[in-house]
Amino acid sequence: MDLPQLLLVGLVLLLGVVGVLVPGVPGTWLVWAGVLWWALHERSALAWSLLVSATALLLVVQVVKWQLPPRRLRGVGVTRRMVVYAGAGALLGFVVVPVAGAVAGFVGGIYLSERLRLGTHGEAWASVRAVMRAVGTSVLVELLACLMVTGAWLGAVLVG
Predict the structure, then answer these.
(1) What angle, rounded to 10 degrees, do the helices at 45-67 and 27-42 form?
(2) Which of 22, 105, 145, 157 has the fewest CB atoms in 10 Å of its CB?
(3) pTM, whole model, 2 decimals?
(4) What is the pLDDT of residues 140-151, one digit of tens each?
(5) CA distance from start to end of the chain
(6) Which of 140, 150, 152, 15 is nearest to 65 (CA)?
């Protein structure tokens, strides 16, 4: 696969990861479609293994999400700014400490957003707890899975 196509696949994966944070956008499906596109062009054992693994992981995540409590976005005051901060924090955390850093970055992004909005540590932390109870778990599970697939794809591209 040539460089322009690899960049386009990477862009689809990035849009999928961001799409996880935006309600109504099929982020997981975009990540899977990007890996499928790459695997169909690569046609190597590594590419097919990654596609099968990504498919299994993303299907398991969908089942896990259905088992989690439903999202209550309006009741806890989730704003677009909070979503952007949480997503940026998760991506930064994922880069700094692969995989596990995404969790701390996600929570840290929500805290920073709420601290800037509310002003005090106590109010911001109470808001973080409310948000995490309402939406954090399901979004975090899906985001972490998409980041893992994207990281595996990036590793496979760099190795192969």
Answers:
(1) 170
(2) 22
(3) 0.69
(4) 889 899 999 999
(5) 11
(6) 140
pLDDT band for 64, please (50, 70, 90 cuts): confident
- What does the pLDDT look like over 76-96, one tens digit per residue? 677 888 888 988 998 898 888
Handedness of CA 111, 116, 118, 123 (dihedral sign): positive
d(CA 44, CA 59): 23
Q: How far apart are CA 160 and CA 155, in angstroms?
A: 8
Calculate ∠ Cα 140-141-143, nearest 5°. Answer: 60
Distance separating alpha carbons of residues 156 and 151, to the nearest angstrom = 9
Backbone angles phi, psi at 71, to 5 degrees: -75, 140
